[in-house]
Sequence to fold (164 residues):
Amino acid sequence: MSITIKKILVPIDFSDYSKSALKYAVNFAKVFNAEMYLIYVVEPVIYPPDFSMGQIAVPSVTVEMDVRAKEELTKLAEQEIPADLKKYIIIKTGKPFVEIIETAAQEDIDLIIIATHGHSGVEHILFGSTAEKVVRKAPCPVLTLREPIKGFQFKDEIKKEKGS
Fold:
């Protein structure tokens, strides 16, 4: 049985963790000559303007966030992904882990490469981790990366260590 990885999904939240995961995924994609799918999930903005009214969603703010997210994700993809790799930008609105899992199924993704933020203690108990939920429910294998990534350094980090 041979392993073929044609499509790699990389969730991005613009944290340093997810940017490192993207750099790692690019190298992975080069090895397998895989297409890269970058996804950013905008969580709907809910404002409780007055407790008697409950919560309401503000669509105009969400639409503006979608546009900005697409611009930023496109810019990041152009900076980090070589031109010879096929790339797709996906912006979704909703709960991140749900949208990541649904996108993986819809696009027939072979591998998800996702950063873990290393939350611990109370924060982890209260919020759980998007990466953990993706691992549990994904329709394909998931590679989770936690900083520092063993055996993997970026050129600029190596220069810093050498003191240049």
Q: What stands out?
A: The chain is about 45% helix and 25% strand. The first strand starts at residue 7 and ends at 11. Confidence is low (pLDDT under 50) at residues 154-164.
